[in-house]
Each structure stands twice: as structure tokens, then as C-alpha cells.
Amino acid sequence: GMHCPIQCGLRVGKSLERLPFVVPGSATADPRTGIVTFAVTSPETVDEEQIRRALERAGFGVLEVKIPLPQ
């Protein structure tokens, strides 16, 4: 559902960066692929359901969430 290179990315980033475990300024969205990436403060604190809800609130569907493994 991402059709705009700048506005879509800004909406996604703003929505994700409200989550307590997302590093501010780290969210990027590629409208060509629909892939969204972002940095987290700690993989153990990531909540997949919160990510899904944040993206849906921004107006996008979610096919898959990949959470990094703790190192």
C-alpha cells in the first residue's frame, strides 16, 4: 500500500518511533518493496503486536514481522 516515497515513509516512521523500543530516527520504509526497517533499543523488549498495530494505525497492512535475535 505504499505509493509515495516520502509521505508513506514519514507516516510509518512517525508511527513506529512512538513505540518505546524503537530508536528515534531509525525507521525507514522502501515504497518499492514495502519493507520497513528500524533499530531497537533491545531485541528482548520488542513486541510484535505493538509493531503490527502501529503500522496498521499508519494505514498499512502487515504481512510479516521479523524480530532480531538477541546477541
Topology:
Blueprint: H1 7-16, E1 28-30, E2 35-37, H2 48-57
Antiparallel strand pairs: 1-2
Report a brief summary of the structure:
This protein is of the alpha+beta class and 71 residues long.
Extended strand count: 2
% residues in beta strands: 5-15%
Distance between the amino and carboxyl termini? 33 Å
Strand arrangement within the widest β-sheet reads 1-2
Structural class: alpha+beta
Explain this structure to me?
- The protein is an alpha+beta fold and 71 residues long.
- It is built from 2 helices and 2 strands.
- The protein has a two-stranded antiparallel ribbon.
- β1 and β2 form a beta hairpin.
- The N and C termini lie far apart (33 Å).
Quick tags:
globular; 71 residues; 8% strand
